[in-house]
Amino acid sequence: MTDPNILLLLTDQERYDFSSPDGVEVETPAIDRLQEDGIRFDNAYTPIGICSSARASLMTGLYPHAHGMLNNCHEDDSLQPNLPEDIDTFSELLDEAGYSNTYIGKWHVGRDQTPEDFGFEYLGGGKHSADIDEPEFREFQREQGVDPDEIDIEEEIRTADGLLVAGKTTAPPEATSTYYHAEKTIERIKEAAEEDEPFFHRTDFPGPHFPYIVPEPYASMYDPENIEPWENFDEDFEDKPGVQEQFLHYRGVEDFDWNKWKHVVAKYKGFVSFIDNQIGRIMDAVDEY
Hints:
Largest sheet: 4 strands, parallel
Number of strands: 7
Structural class: alpha/beta
Distance between the termini: 21 Å
Strand order of the largest sheet: 1-6-2-3
């Protein structure tokens, strides 16, 4: 039996109901197509809602209490900033089995570790942040006719402390990191089609994690005036877990009323649709090559 080629695509902080057929109304034709042609898991849950911890569990197949990475690796108070070297990861096992392993995009598993430490060839895209400052990406933007130093953010939504929550980038879609991740993935698919060994490729889109910075036409795809408040928007925190109120203050959005939230949600929806468009491009490349 021939070893299968494997392509793994991840998004970051994408609500399950935004890509569910029965969920919120958001344009996601690529994910809809994937669900129709493949298998959709309704009862698959992350073991933890913290970025580095969940990513470490994905890499190791272990619960967070077993691999020890219980909070984000970049935090000053990180309990374990790197994965223990004696824990096997699926990528290392694939490497031992003769797979050509490549990785694009966000990493965020080890403070000092990189995908290369776990059997991957890293192809770029910003290991720890959505803000890519790699010379290759800046050159890519110039190839799209965009000066990276001239890109601005409009329609900014910020907290009282100045934290950027959402906005519109003046860059066209083709000059964004989201498009770049998809383009690099398509290049890898083309290359792998010519190789003899099986391949595993992973692309980690940093979005739609906040801040929700979206290009046109996606920035204005959803009219904020057509977005209704969620059912419990006006409820207080009485008889609810304390962590809910703590998180509201942690991000500094306690003063946001619906007038502001509807614009945030509109940008988030646009971000989800933008990423879906890139996933569609990748799926087309898989079909072609």
